[in-house]
Amino acid sequence: MSRQQRAMRRAARTGIGPTHDAPAPNPGAVGAFALLGEVLLVGVVVVGFGFTVLTLPAALAAGIRHVRRFVRAEGSPFRALWADFLKALPAGLLVGAATALLGGVLALDIVVARSGAMPGGPVIEALGWVIAAAAAGGLLLVCAAWTSEAGWRAAFRAAPTAVAADPIGALYAVVAACFVGLAGWMLLPLAIPAAGCAALAAVAAPARRRGRSTA
């Protein structure tokens, strides 16, 4: 974003400049407290609806779509979030089952490596954590790419393209996913706001790239 554009937006927010010359790209995100409330709501939805792990992808996809609608001021009633969850759930259960299976395998690998029962245990354990972090970030990207029209197959096809187009954004997704796990490990209730923040990060990272390209 250029210096002139930033000045125009500041003038529009303060009322001393024309608002039509500086439209906000995410008008729903202007109110910090309102955005915080939606992030907490999405955190409750993701943790509550996705507590079984099998339903986690559907809950995360619906939550991310809700945050995206809110920041764009497109209308974000809870019934739309619920409708997205129900649409994402049938095929999302298969994604959740694959997630649970991969998580179980990685957890077993890390536990066995830490026990010293295999040679090169520290290296294998570290590799397990790296794969787990990458898989969690990948799940966040896939859920962010899900739409009720295209479904999960299109989301999986879109994720590698998103990574290639914006590797830094993909790294943000990995960090956000790891933050949720770390917050839940430290204190389980902290997973609620952390999950909401992860959904917001999944929306904000692509917007950051678009904003930079239009500057």
Tell me about this structure:
With 215 residues, this protein is an all-alpha fold. The chain has one domain (31-213). The protein is 78% helix and 0% strand. The chain contains eight helices and no strands. The model is unreliable at 17-22 (pLDDT under 50).
Count of spatially separate domains: 1
How many strands, which pairing sense, and closed or not: the largest β-sheet? Answer: none
- What spatial form do the alpha-carbon principal axes imply? globular
Strand content: under 5%
Helix content: over 70%
Tell me the radius of gyration: 19 Å
Q: What is the H-and-E element order?
A: HHHHHHHH
- End-to-end Cα distance, whole Å, is 3 Å
Question: What structural category arises from helix and sheet content?
Answer: mainly alpha
**Count of extended strands:** 0
Report mean pLDDT, rounded to a whole number: 84
Q: What are the segments in which pLDDT stays under 50 over at least 5 consecutive residues?
A: 17-22
Would you summarize the structure shown here?
With 215 residues, this protein is mainly α. Helix content is 78%, strand content 0%.
